[in-house]
Amino acid sequence: MTISHRGLLAALGTGVAGIAFAPLSAAQTVVELPPIDAQDASLAAEGGSAAGSTTVSGAGLEAGLATSSDALQLISRAPGVALQSNGGIASLPVLRGLADDRVGVLIDGQQATNYCPNHMNPVSSYIDASRVERVVVTPTLSPVSMGGDNIAGIISIETRAPEFSASGVEVFGEAGATYRSVSNGIGASLQANAAGEKVSARYEASWNKADNYKSGSGDEVRSTLYENYDQSLLLAARPADDVLFWVRISQQGVPYEGFANQRMDLTDNKSNSVQVHGEGPVGVGILTADASWRSVDHEMNFLSDKGGAATGGMPMITEGEDTSLKVRYDAPVEGVGQVRVGAEMFRASMDDYWPAVPGSMMMSPLDYVNINDGERNRTGVWGEWEASPAPEWSTLLGLRYEKVEMDAGEVQPYSWTGMMNMADAMAAMAFNAAERAREDDNIDVTAKATWRPSDSVAVEFGAAQKTRSPNLYERYAWGRGSMSSSMTNMTGDGAGYVGDIGLEPEVARSLAATLDWSDGIENGRILRVSGWASYVEDYIDADRIGSLMDGRPQLQFANHEAELYGFEATGAMPLWQTGFGDTRLSGTVSWAKGENKDTGDNLYNIAPLQGVFALENRNGVWTQALDLELVDEKDDISAVRQELRTPGYVLIHLRAGGEVGRVRFAAAIENLLDQDYDLPLGGIAFGDYKYDGRVDPFHQVAGPGRSFNLSVNVAF
Question: Quick check: 689 pLDDT over 80?
């Protein structure tokens, strides 16, 4: 028998946001202790969670593994979550209308920097879905202990915990394979464990490859192919039952990845990382410390759909390095409650340059220096108090302070004298003459309460202030030329973007409430309803400053006032129990609205009203389901970004899974009727536009057509 060591905080039931966790079983299925005696209603969530959070684990993960290696696809149906198209390896998260860097995405508690002007290597690109044990989504009212530098909330991705044997040494593991017909996608994964009573080791690896996928019309969606691999080695020690140390060494590589909504493609991305973790008792509490380092070497150019790079193309190189250190202490205080304090630092450094192309009149004779010695350093401290002032009440109050220091060196265009580079030459001189160092003092506050008047009802409500400083590109992308500015784009809208050194941090002040209800019967009826509103001071939107050569807008990042609000609802109910198993109906609905209060324009890439409903049958270890996905038309569009409208659509999916002995199966037919539809958050189909010779008007990226998906895992 193996024992999974999730950590002392989990074992003691003092997880973040008041969630209590039980130790993992040998089968690595998370057993949650929910605030009410009910199963989570979300199609994407299984197991309980705090009233304002959604947890995806166990069978919820198995359903997602049959469809994608993208870890964020595992939560694509969670309430309040949407995904912005961003290549086949990793989507960009949208949490209650706030996207990308505004969402704090953690892998085992660690952040990572997007080292790309198109954000082709987000945090979730460094983990394959096969390695994910659990995903916890905590929007709006996320505790300050979970992390800062975000205004939307936290998506916490957790990998398998170290495992130890009860006696002797055990060797075990699992091998898996996946197939996805719509893109001829194939993948393989492996985990191998050697567990002793005091020490353990685990090796994990995965590989995925896919061609361009086809839409429901049968046409290829250009620039959607990819290949990637990753591997990691986890070494852990448990010198005592209440002490744990581990170190993880990881390597990730992407030989190529097409980006349907960007002008560029990824032609190489290599990343190495080391993470060290330790925890143990100190006095009456638990001390936890983490340190991490990551290096990234990222290259962009054109893949074949966009013309290739036989004549040099347009090489772009980004080199980055992250270093972080976190310490926290968690202790009970008699008569007060649970008190947590912590300190952390995060250092990010980046060089972004575009090598000269010999023989090119525009892209020579110098290397274009986009960001030179860019620095974004955060140092923070925080404190949190969790209490139970009455049997039916629990409260959480937290305060975080962070200092963010940013700077960048002098830059240069491809040429200081050529007429084709005049706009960039003038912009570079102005940038070099400016004072570029900036310091931000950021304050986060979270205050919330949960009322449980009975075993079947829980109500969570609260307020939060969250702050995010601009990223390096938002402050320091300086190019004003049509070509150079079009290379900075993190939204897939085809626009060109210019930074602003003087940008202020975004400050979101939010209110949120969630009602959880169940009938008190295991696998019975449940309902969860959430409402929220955020007012964002100095929201980083964009102002138009010109037009690109192909008619798309040239924009500059600018602070504005913004307002967002919305609701989510999830529910489930049993329908019948027969000799063929238990059948259950469940569903989730999400809606959000966002507006720039200064201009009256809609915010970009706000997902329209959408819902997913499932008719699911479980019979022992076998599960089969029919899913109905409904998405409304997107007509609240951003005028300044020339965002395109998308019609509504309805998709039908089938899925099934089970196990026989040591073999587990998961299968799905996505888009059963092969519907042709546009992705509301897909962005401009620049890959199609470039492949077609720039003659057709811009259109939205189309969604995948019918796909037969299969995953098989064999334990040993």
Answer: yes
- Between CA 525 and CA 610 the distance in angstroms is 22
Identify the helix (H) or strand (E) that includes residue 11: helix 8-11
- Kindly give the pairing relationship between strand 153-159 and strand 103-107: parallel
Q: Residue 108, by phi and psi: left (phi above 0), alpha (psi -120 to 50) or beta?
A: left
> What residue type is assigned to position 666 of the chain?
A
E runs forming strands in 552-606: 553-578, 581-596
The torsion of the CA quartet 307, 309, 315, 319, rounded to 10 degrees, works out to 100
Residue 585 and residue 15: Cα distance in Å, rounded? Answer: 30
Q: Which residues contact 346 (CB under 8 A, 6 or more apart)?
A: 111, 149, 322, 323, 324, 377, 378
> Distance from CA of residue 166 to its chain's centroid?
36
Q: DSSP secondary-structure letter at 297?
A: E
CA dist 152 and 468 (Å) reads 10
Confidence of residue 26 (pLDDT cuts 50, 70, 90): very low
For 538-552, write each residue's pLDDT tens digit.
999 999 999 999 999
Q: What letter would DSSP give residue 485? A: H
For residue 59, the model assigns a pLDDT of 57
Tokens (6 digits) for 132: 């994910």
The percent of residues above 90 in pLDDT, for the chain, comes to 89
List of residues 6+ apart from 674 with CB closer than 8 A: 216, 705, 706
DSSP state at residue 63? H
Half-sphere exposure of 651 (CA within 13 A, CB side): 26
pLDDT at 68: 81
Going from the C-alpha of 642 to that of each of 116, 272, 350, 439, the distances in angstroms are: 23, 38, 31, 33
Residues in the chain: 716
Is pLDDT larger for residue 169 or for residue 59? 169
The predicted model scores a pTM of: 0.93
CB 428 within 8 A of CB 478: yes
